[in-house]
Specification:
The complex is a heterodimer of chains A (216) and B (806). Chain A is mainly alpha-helical. Chain A is 52% helix and 4% strand. Chain A contains ten helices and four strands, in the order ααβααβααβααβαα. Classes of the chains: A mainly alpha (216), B mainly alpha (806). Chain A: This is Calcineurin B homologous protein 3.
Chain lengths: 216, 806
């Protein structure tokens, strides 16, 4: 492949637009942002992300950054993590946050929900064993409460345990005392988060106008 | 005989409902007849008619008075009737009683109330009562604007504002504002303009109705009414989005209505409006709406600030909420600002802080009082609408009235369709045609329109009666026709209904997670969007505002933890109330309401027992135990000495004794339960859950030992840096922690193993007095130690007589 040159390549953009569903202006915008973050290099690394000042006060920034480098999210059936990503991968991750289009059939909505929830699931399931174990869930809640000091740390465990129990109760119903609930599988995950309409909530507004000059 | 049998069975089936119907009608009749007498004998101060009071003295009255002032030759009256004195309160009470009985009656006849919405039935009742009163010869009291705006409307609006679902509201605020402002403007000018055109047509004899008057009428009739919308939409349970759109619109269009009403009323005499007036009108609109919101917000902050100090006078907490809100409303009305928006702003602003400060009981009180008042108000409004229809002077003009009705409907539909077309360009979740239909169809008019029309001065507006008739007809049309048909239409169109699921902790976790995730992605993307600003506001709120307005430790409590504790409380209360009887009931708390035998041990990783424990030399372990035990006794003694003199007796509003008795009962019951699904887990239990943790202990010692191994041995409740550490905290052997390799993951956070009364309790139960908490905390201390040591050692020292382990 000719490599990702900084000169806007219309043909390339069109390919990406077809693949990810963004419009050409949006891709141009994101490319500018990509270049800004990577200081005009071709790839982004983790510390490029860490340099974003707004991200510093986000409690789950580690997970977010990690999600960008997770091969499972590149829709190419890979596993593991990479050290640096190109613009195409960046765009692929961003495409998870596109809003649903107006005329979507029920199956399309369901498919979109699965895709987005899969992204969330991958964020939680760090060891890629297909389930979110109690430890992993605890970690999630602890991260969420990580800025609340001591109180957060203690109750985080309790909250995670309670949440796990709830998932188990809803998904498994009856369990014998000696049975063991391995962890939240993707299907269970779908079930418990049915109440949140993910396809309408998990999106951000991608602008057609270039705003990179305004933001850090 | 078959016939008799048939009759009897038919009678039996119908008798139940029939009896109720008969009772209801009897009650209506009785009250209806007493009311006119009440209305007759008391002066009509309640209505404060614009047309002046009617002197209602009847011959009976005069007779009574005459009797009591007779000469001394008459014997001392043992029993005398003096209705005058109590006339007005009596009448008011009678009306409220009638309203409540009607409500009662409707819910006893489910067949009727499932077809006809309550508001329609109430209007019919009002018509009947009004008719009865008129039959008796008295003039039925119409719905006076003062009564309506100052007494009947505020509770409904406050109820709506205080319990306004914030998230959907803020997510859709743009759409709501466009519908409220632009939509109402469109309605006003369309209806007013076209009505003027119709009036100008030859042969209509309405030529003297000029443009401004028509526009004034338009401004009266165009506003969607929150009372009517609430009444109808509450029964049809549509999805949250549509509900908040229509309801939000009905609340926010008040500013537009107020401004245009006053504007047109001012200039109706002049006959024309200059462009300067238009500009001033726009400025006035901004002042009215923003001013109203500002007034409301100020009072809301005052209320939040006041509630910070009410920890010692819990009983009057609800009063502050009501008073501040009502004063916000009245203050806004003084300056002709939008009272409704002030009330909404006050409720919205004060709620998160007040809820963090007040006790659970006060919260319940506020909720129930608001619901009660708003319910009664709503009923009264509709009944009075019916009565006023009978009472008012009507001037029926076929053209005017029918064209009003048709134009309103047409303008509403056109307005909604047109605006949605524009709005959908900016919305992510677009509004479908079904949604648009419901929004258009749900634009009901109600008592606000009636009162505004009633306020018109008949001198300046000779056509007032005609307007009144038209307004009433429009109200009747929307409430009856639209109100009754909207429910089958919703079912027919398969509009999405409200989801009844309770909030689960998983959803809450993921909602928060999503918020942070989306904020992060926005930051990475580089544009400051919706989430970014929301996050900034949350951080500002947390850092500065919460510290001022929330008392004590609760100010630092993150939302997730607050939610978790709220749910724990709820389930704990449910558990204690249900008595934990029989295995199945213990599971009532599961959101799916599905009995589940999943318990904590099912989700604990089984590999834990095989994990190599940090090996403590046996001697050390024994040492630790001895130290802990002795310190426990020391603490107990020290605390006991505080018992009589320094501790405030009442850690809970309930009373400590009640709790103890309840706990004893529950313990006995729970002994019978072998396996309990525990929503609550062990660390940081709030006051209620020692019951359950003890029960778990008694039922599940195996699981418990598994659990506590994972924390490292021994797991003593460690509390960090809590500002409330009481003076009697015993610091066990600091070097123990430093020297031995006790660390499980949790150890490195603390400087030592401290046996402090868990101050997290003080955090989780902010209503407890600090001192009173000690008595309670000491009990928990013991439990924790017992758990840790997992031997029944100090059981003899227990306050309660039950051994912890069976």
């Amino acid at each position: 492949m000719g490599g990702l040159n900084s000169v806007p390549d219309d043909q390339r953009y069109r390919e990406l637009a077809d693949k990810t569903g963004f419009s050409l202006e949006q891709i141009g915008n994101l490319h500018n942002r990509f270049k800004q973050l990577s200081h005009n290099e071709d790839t982004l690394r983790r510390d490029d992300f860490s340099k974003i000042p707004d991200l510093a006060c986000n409690p789950i920034r580690a997970e977010i950054i990690e999600a960008f480098f997770d091969k499972r999210n590149f829709q190419s059936h890979g596993v593991g993590t990479v050290e640096e990503i190109g613009f195409e991968e960046f765009l692929t991750i961003m495409s998870y946050f596109r809003p649903p289009s107006l005329n979507m059939s029920e199956e399309q909505r369901e498919e979109l929900r699965r895709i987005k929830l899969r992204f969330l699931f991958n964020m939680h399931d760090t060891d890629n064993d297909g389930t979110i174990t109690l430890e992993e869930y605890r970690h999630v809640v602890e991260e969420l409460l990580s800025r609340s000091g001591a109180l957060g740390r203690e109750t985080a465990k309790g909250i995670a345990d309670a949440a796990m129990l709830e998932v188990a109760s809803i998904s498994m119903g009856h369990m014998e005392p000696d049975e063991f609930y391995e962890g939240i599988t993707f299907e269970h995950f779908l079930k418990i988060l049915k109440g949140i309409e993910i396809e309408t909530r998990m999106h951000i507004r991608f602008l057609n106008v270039d705003t990179t000059v305004l933001c850090k | 005989m078959p016939r008799r049998h048939l009759a009897r069975s038919a009678g039996c089936c119908k008798s139940f409902v029939g009896r109720r119907l008969v009772t209801v009608t009897l009650v209506v009749f009785l009250v209806g007849t007493v009311l006119p007498l009440g209305a007759a004998s008391s002066p009509e101060i309640t209505t404060r008619d614009v047309n002046g009071d009617h002197n209602q003295e009847t011959p009976e009255n005069k007779h009574n008075e005459h009797d009591s002032h007779n000469t001394s030759q008459k014997a001392f009256p043992v029993l005398s009737v003096d209705f005058d004195r109590i006339g007005q309160p009596f009448e008011i009470s009678l009306w409220v009683l009638l309203a409540s009985l009607m409500k009662l009656g409707f819910h006893m006849t489910p067949r009727v109330s499932s077809i006809v919405p309550e508001s329609c039935l109430l209007i019919v009742v009002g018509l009947l009562v009004g008719g009865l009163i008129q039959l008796v010869g008295q003039k039925p009291p119409p719905l006076g604007p003062d009564l309506f705006f100052l007494c009947l409307l505020p509770p409904i609006i406050l109820d709506a504002g205080y319990f306004l679902p914030i998230r959907p509201f803020t997510e859709n605020v743009g759409t709501i504002l466009i519908f409220a402002v632009v939509g109402t403007l469109w309605n006003i000018f369309f209806v007013g303009g076209l009505l003027y055109g119709i009036c100008q047509l030859e042969g209509m004899h309405l030529g003297q109705v000029d443009l401004i008057t028509c526009l004034l009428f338009g401004s009266i009739i165009s506003a969607v009414d929150p009372v009517a919308v609430l009444a109808v939409f509450e029964e049809i349970h549509i999805n949250e989005l549509l509900h908040i759109l229509v309801f939000g619109e009905s609340l926010l269009n008040d500013a537009v209505t107020v401004v245009l009403y006053h504007l047109f009323e001012e200039y109706a005499g002049v006959g024309h409006v200059t462009p300067l007036d238009v500009v001033l009108g726009i400025v006035c609109f901004l002042v009215v709406s923003l001013g109203g919101i500002l007034v409301g917000a100020i009072y809301g902050i005052l209320a939040a600030f006041t509630s910070r100090f009410t920890s010692h006078t819990r009983v009057i907490e609800p009063l502050f909420v009501f008073l501040y809100s009502y004063m916000a409303y009245l203050s806004a009305e003084v300056f002709h600002l939008s009272g409704i928006m002030a009330l909404i702003a006050c409720g919205v602003v004060m709620r998160p802080y007040v809820e963090a400060n007040i006790s659970h009981k006060s919260h319940t009180t506020i909720k129930y009082f608001l619901k009660m008042w708003s319910s009664v108000s709503e009923t009264l409004i509709f009944i009075f609408l019916g009565v006023s229809t009978v009472a008012g002077n009507h001037s029926w003009n076929w053209t005017f009235v029918t064209s009003t009705v048709i134009l309103c409907l047409v303008s509403r539909v056109l307005g909604v369709v047109g605006l949605t077309f524009i709005i959908n360009k900016f919305r992510i979740v677009k509004l479908t045609t079904k949604d648009q239909f419901i929004i258009a169809y749900g634009g009901l008019r109600g008592a606000i329109a009636f009162s505004l029309c009633y306020l018109l001065d008949p001198v300046h507006f000779p056509k007032r009666d005609m307007f009144l008739t038209a307004v009433i007809t429009e109200i009747f049309f929307t409430v009856f026709v639209q109100g009754m048909t909207i429910r089958p239409l919703v079912d027919l169109l398969a509009v999405k209904k409200k989801q009844e699921t309770k909030r689960s902790i998983n959803e809450e976790i993921h909602t928060q997670f999503l918020d942070h995730l989306l904020t992060g992605i926005e930051d990475i993307c580089g544009h400051y969007g919706h989430h970014h600003w929301k996050d900034k506001m949350n951080r500002f709120n947390k850092k500065y505002v919460k510290k001022c307005l929330i008392a004590g430790e609760r100010s630092k409590e993150p939302q997730l933890i607050a939610f978790y504790h709220k749910m724990e409380m709820k389930h704990a209360i449910e558990l204690v109330e249900s008595g934990g009887g029989g295995g199945g009931h213990a599971n009532v708390k599961m959101p799916s309401a599905m009995p589940s035998t999943v318990s904590m041990q099912n989700i604990q990783p089984k590999k834990q027992p095989e994990r190599v424990l940090p090996q403590l030399p046996k001697g050390r372990e024994e040492e630790i135990r001895k130290i802990l035990r002795s310190n426990l006794q020391k603490t107990r003694q020290r605390l006991q000495s505080y018992n009589r003199h320094t501790l405030v007796v009442d850690p809970y509003e309930d009373g400590w004794n009640e709790i103890l008795i309840k706990r004893k009962k529950v313990i006995e019951l729970e002994k019978k339960i072998n396996q309990m699904s525990n929503y609550l887990t062990v660390p940081a239990p709030p006051p209620d859950s020692p019951t359950m943790s003890r029960a778990r202990l008694s039922s599940d010692p195996q699981a418990w030992s598994v659990k506590h191994d994972s924390d490292g041995v021994p797991s003593i409740q460690v509390d960090l840096a809590s500002p409330q550490s009481p003076p009697d905290s015993v610091c066990i052997v600091d070097d123990l922690a430093k020297s031995s390799a006790l660390s499980a993951g949790t150890r490195e956070e603390d400087g030592g193993l401290m046996m402090k009364p868990p101050s997290s309790l003080a955090v989780t139960a902010p209503k407890k007095d600090e001192k009173g908490g000690e008595q309670q905390e000491e009990g928990k201390e013991q439990q924790r130690l017992i758990r840790c040591l997992s031997d029944p050692g100090p059981s003899a020292d227990e306050e309660e007589d039950e051994p912890f382990l069976p």
